[in-house]
Write a structure and sequence with these properties.
This protein is an alpha+beta fold. It has one domain: YaeB-like fold, CATH 3.30.2310.20. Helix content is about 35%, strand content about 30%. A hairpin with a 4-residue loop joins strand 4 and strand 5. The longest helix is centred in the N-terminal third of the chain and has 14 residues.
Length: about 110
């Protein structure tokens, strides 16, 4: 089954900021989008219908913490995988469950 890929405003803003910092990130996000269109259940599941995916940055392979995390959410109603959040592990260590719930609720507002 093929899934549609959507984004929320917060993801687009953070992705734009990070792609200016890491030039290869745009291509990595596009590749992730293709993978997600084939299988929505990629990564670690911190919540229901929600996954945390680690992308290693090709621009900077110096240590394990040089990864970017993408939080995705899946809605069964229309078969869309939403890219909810993206953050650099060097800037933000983790995302709280309350933040994930807020991101999931923001899908319906978009």
């Amino acid at each position: 089954m093929n899934f549609k890929i959507g984004t929320i405003t917060g993801f687009r803003k953070e992705a734009k900021r990070l792609t200016k910092k890491y030039k290869s990130l745009k291509q990595e996000i596009e590749s992730l989008g293709f993978q997600l269109s084939q299988n929505h259940a990629i990564g670690i599941a911190p919540g229901i219908n929600c996954f945390k995916i680690r992308l290693s940055k090709a621009s900077n392979n110096t240590c394990k913490s040089d990864v970017t995390c993408v939080i995705t959410g899946f809605t069964a109603e229309d078969g869309t995988v939403y890219l909810l959040s993206i953050f650099d592990k060097s800037e933000k260590d983790n995302i709280l469950d309350a933040e994930i719930q807020e991101l999931i609720h923001s899908i319906s507002k978009e």
